[in-house]
User: Fold Transcriptional repressor from Gloeocapsopsis crepidinum LEGE 06123.
Amino acid sequence: MTVYTATSLKAELNDRGWRLTPQREVILHVFQELPKGEHLSAEDLYHHLEAQGEGISLSTIYRTLKLMARMGILRELELGEGHKHYEINQPYPYHHHHLICVRCNKTIEFKNDSILKIGTKTAQKEGYHLLDCQLTIHAVCPSCQRALLPL
Amino acid sequence: MTVYTATSLKAELNDRGWRLTPQREVILHVFQELPKGEHLSAEDLYHHLEAQGEGISLSTIYRTLKLMARMGILRELELGEGHKHYEINQPYPYHHHHLICVRCNKTIEFKNDSILKIGTKTAQKEGYHLLDCQLTIHAVCPSCQRALLPL
DNA sequence: TTCCTATTAGAAAACATTTGCAATAAACCC
DNA sequence: GGGTTTATTGCAAATGTTTTCTAATAGGAA
Assistant:
């Protein structure tokens, strides 16, 4: 959970024999500028980029999102919508979690400092190198509780 | 996170105007008998049932898994394999979480009592009715750390 | 038992994501 | 800077998972 700049991203990519491309730089930038609490699907990102005149192909987007998630730059979120969402992976004061209604997918973010500590300790104990840790709560929101019937 | 029997499942389904079918009963039973720590994908379950002579169609399996997850009977796990996995949702002493290697998908289960408490408190505070809460840790396992290069 | 309608199986469709390939262009070396 | 190597891109096609449609079936309530 480091904070990345184009330069540090390039350094880390090159270290592994990979390359910093304009596409990767642009995508990193989009996520860095994204308002706190927003997250994008691959399709969202595709349209976002198209709209701002920097068209990047969907396959490159998919490849880049996966790459950046595996590097720990992005968090991959499963919010129950049938496709993944991504957001920048930020350290301590911004680190947060999601409470999701299983019926309407309404999602609330919340923070809790002890979770990151637990995740760090657990990964360390097993010798894993931590990239991200997220508590996902599946629940039924107040309005869906009232609308009892529909699944 | 209640413990279900065929009878209590029937009661809860009927309450909502739904039905207990042999298929639903069989599927519940499979998950109840599953060794602790195992989880099944839709396809896994399909073949498991086929093998034991109780063929159930894939579409019914998908519908039932979704239904039971939304009822809180099953937990839906995203273990990075491109499809969901399911396991029975059990209360306190069996409640656990997953540490996943983002490269090879090797998964380790771990327990931590405070997480469920945090989840319960958070859901309650927002007026949500809790179904499940899982901490997912994404990390790189020791052997994938050594094999530095491949993404 | 009868009726109503939720549920099923099977096939087809929809959707998200990955892959193959030829063209392009970063990074490294001189 | 120019040349070489090969990672990366875009596009199209393929893959894999999950959902949806429909007619037939069978739970549940009276």
